[in-house]
Design goal:
This protein is an alpha/beta fold and 182 residues long. Helices cover 35% and strands 22% of the residues. Helix 2 runs parallel beside helix 3. The chain starts with a helix and ends with a strand. It binds S-adenosylmethionine.
Length: 182
């Protein structure tokens, strides 16, 4: 069954891009990463709106088997090869400002230096296990005083992980959650 049908009760049309753009401008951030790029809607909107910003976009662009985990996505509804190709092509237009890392988010994190980012936007695997491993891999890449951000805070799996790990997290609207890196 398609993710769209299975997870229809969760999926909302949100403008997370506007929230990230506001935060980047407000804080004057210059280095960020997005975990889970898909077709690049957020990645490229943020790069277009914030000329001083460089971004690393991470995605495995892979249809994965359905797992037992709550809120697991398979991406069966997407032509991942075509999306990967389109994103890679478009990314070239931004030169050094846009680096694409293709592969599992945790494996890809190993090539990013600790404390090198002003923010990370976690929007990859929305299962509890998936978000926990992304936080474990990516939070350390954000400098102290930067922000760990993510999407889909109303998803029960996301909410449980974020509430437990960061009890003082904020909601910025459009399903975006965030916490200042200590
Ligand atoms: C919700 S979509 C991202 C949407 C995008 N952030 C936006 O705002 O337009 C989630 C993406 O995460 C990717 N993803 C899921 N698990 C992943 C993993 N373990 N490693 C890398 N990418 C992953 C999927 O391939 C998918 O493209």
């Amino acid at each position: 069954m398609s993710d769209r049908k299975r997870l229809a009760h969760l999926v909302k049309a949100t403008n997370q891009r506007a929230v990230i753009i506001d935060l980047v401008k407000q804080h004057g951030w210059t280095r960020g990463a997005e975990i889970g790029v898909l077709r690049g809607k957020t990645l490229f909107s943020v790069l277009d709106a914030c000329p001083g910003l460089s971004m690393t976009g991470v995605d495995q662009w892979k249809v994965v088997p359905l797992r037992e985990d709550e809120n697991a996505e398979t991406y069966v509804d997407f032509d991942m090869r075509a999306l990967e190709r389109d994103v890679a092509l478009r990314a070239k237009g931004y030169g050094y400002r846009c680096i694409i890392l293709k592969g599992d988010s945790v494996a890809m994190s190993k090539s990013v230096e600790k404390g090198s980012l002003d923010f990370v936007f976690l929007d990859g695997d929305h299962t509890e296990h998936g978000l926990k491993r992304d936080i474990a891999a990516w939070a350390s890449k954000v400098r102290s005083g930067g922000m760990i951000l993510g999407h889909d805070i109303s998803w029960a799996t996301v909410n449980r992980v974020v509430s437990a790990k960061y009890p003082d997290f904020q909601e910025f609207g459009e399903e975006v959650w965030g916490v200042v890196k200590k």
